[in-house]
User: Fold this.
Amino acid sequence: MGDEIQRVIIPYEPRDEFLPFHNRKQRWAIGVCHRRAGKTVSCINDLIKGALTCPLPDPRFAYLAPYYAQAKDVVWTYLKHYAGAVPGVQFNESELRADFPNGGRVRLYGADNYDRMRGIYLDGVVPDEYADMDPRVWPEVIRPALSDRKGWAAFIGTPKGRNDFCRMYENALNDPDWFVLTLKASQTKLVDPDELADARKSMSEDQYEQEYECSFDAAVVGAYYAKQIKRAEESKRIVNVPWEPSVEVHTAWDLGIGDSTAIWFAQAIGREVRIIDYYEASGVGLDHYAKMLREKPYTYGEHILPHDVAVKELGTGKSRLEVLDGLGVRRIRIAPNLRVEDGINAARLFLEKCWFDKDKTAHAIEALRQYRAEYDEKLKTLKLRPLHDWTSHPADAFRYLALGLKDVTARGWDSPIVPKFGTIA
Assistant:
């Protein structure tokens, strides 16, 4: 079996730019590469090589895309093409998996459901376009999966602002335990000069610098709150924000159905809004969040929830508002049912008076920074709706906070003025 596998020729000829990547000795790697450099193809072949040569029994390797559909539509074709040259390989279409005769396996996953990877072990993994992923994917799921067998990880992608991918890249530059690959279009010459010139015509300067010149400083295209978050950082409003026990804590929720629920915790003190805490979880019932609220030391004011919380579910005949009330979550205020773009404008203004606890809200701040409009690749323009990804729930909950807390502080709890608001006393 071993001799047979050694004679296999994979129909892959590495580009010179990726030879150092394939020959690396470090356990950890990060590649910041321009569009059409060939990073995904190189990494799929690196995973195939790992599955065929790993000396441990039943090797397990994984490719992780931002979305499962993306892995299925694009990368699955690559995996079948290159792995198909291995005699005896079997493909599992339903699980996007290639099983090799030596017991090795390469499987594709999507970071939009990264909890699916909890509990598995891995000998190697490639998170592709890591800048588009929830930053909790690495420390909470991928890193633990590599521990038992001391597996490796190779992060690849193009920049999307100064986010977790950027911080990982900058730290890796000064760490000998990391292999670093940087490929800019102006240096590699992998893309035809005429094509690059045409791309410049149809893209903004920030778009071009981000996609082809690997700039982390280019503004994220379509980002709604990036400027406001940057101003908050420059004006030192993202610091250690103390909880004031004598002041009520208001919360704002985005209730996910089958995915994450996000909750912000805020105190209104004078003309300031102090964002002191943030909580997010998925796959649990409303009783989990009621218990979490009780376990925190805060005295609560209003709990601001989206308008659909009052809709009765067919199965139970109760609304989530009624369920929360039964769990002891009282003084619920329903946020106005405004257009998303109106809520985003309100949130932009609201951000200018917010102070954020830098530790407790770090994940949510990153979500606000990256929350952006969906981009139409075909028409080369931004769509009117936000992109739905890991940033959506924190951003939606913050929008409800901006709308709801403005009303609470301006008119007080008992005001009957705003008919779009409902309360449970």
About this structure: The CA atoms of residues 25 and 179 lie 8 Å apart.
